[in-house]
Write a structure and sequence with these properties.
By secondary structure, this protein is α+β, with helices and mostly antiparallel strands. Helices cover 47% and strands 21% of the residues. The protein is built from nine helices and nine strands.
């Protein structure tokens, strides 16, 4: 083999190496760009909702309708995709808001029959979320009401409204400021009554600490029933606006009969 042929072979080999490296980098760039685009799409849709709940800046409407609600969003490179919002997705969204409670959940509901929502309420109580429920006395124990089941758990407080006027509210308050203050007072009272103070100090690290968090309200026509979510036209407004949360808390306190005299301010 002469020198000219050798040079051609070496040049060809070098070209192959260069091309392979370029192709490798190109594939890597395309893959990363695709991954980046997918992440941005997710952020525009589901992830944005997760962050929204985390930051508690919420102004949302959940519509239960026969028609599929479609939203068009724009993604990088000027492409548009359509997101469909069905009854099933709205049920999931509603439960996601409920299970986002960190410290307290105050429920004022004419009727609760949904086993899925009941399960979430029980799980919240097991995670040290303080749960209070006000229901209408006529509907509290009428099948398939879940109130009797909820009353089986000591960490869930239930009161039936026994006034002559119908209790037809359908709202809940997640981490309301007044409810969190009440939880702090209850905890302080429990520690004061604890005759084994050394145990309180010993296991202090095991007691979840209350963090500053912004509350929000869910209110609308929807009872927490499977029938309503599957078959009815219903709407739920979700908002963290402080003035609206405050008004709903005031209404809740007017319905709730406080049994703990220690909660009075000193």
């Amino acid at each position: 083999m002469d020198w000219k042929s050798t040079k051609m072979i070496l040049a060809s080999a070098a070209a192959v190496v260069v091309v392979s490296q370029v192709a490798k980098k190109l594939c890597k760039y395309i893959f990363n760009s695709s991954k980046h685009t997918e992440n941005e799409v997710a952020n525009d849709d589901t992830c944005s909702e997760v962050l929204q709940i985390k930051n508690r800046e919420i102004n949302d409407v959940i519509l239960f309708s026969d028609d599929i609600v479609r939203h068009t969003i724009r993604i990088p490179t000027n492409k548009e995709i359509t997101i469909c919002e069905s009854r099933e997705l709205n049920c999931f969204k509603l439960i996601k808001y409920i299970k986002s409670a960190r410290e307290t959940l105050d429920v004022c509901m004419y009727l609760i029959t949904s086993t899925e929502i009941t399960e979430q309420i029980i799980r919240l109580g097991q995670k040290h979320v303080l749960v209070r429920i006000v229901v209408d006395s006529d509907m509290a124990y009428a099948p398939p009401s879940q109130i009797k089941r909820l009353e089986e758990y000591s960490f869930i407080q239930v009161q039936t409204n026994k006034r002559t006027i119908l209790m037809h509210h359908k709202f809940c308050i997640v981490d309301g400021p007044k409810a969190i203050k009440r939880k702090l007072l209850l905890r302080a009272h429990a520690e004061k009554l604890n005759v084994h103070g050394h145990l309180t100090r010993k296991f202090a690290n095991q007691v979840p600490k209350i963090k500053n968090t912004k509350g929000f309200v869910m209110s609308g026509s929807l009872n927490w029933s499977t029938q309503a979510m599957i078959s009815n036209h219903e709407s739920v407004i979700v908002t963290s606006h402080p003035n609206i949360v405050s008004k709903f808390e005031k209404e809740y306190e007017s319905l709730w009969v406080e049994n703990e005299p220690t909660l009075k301010s000193t």
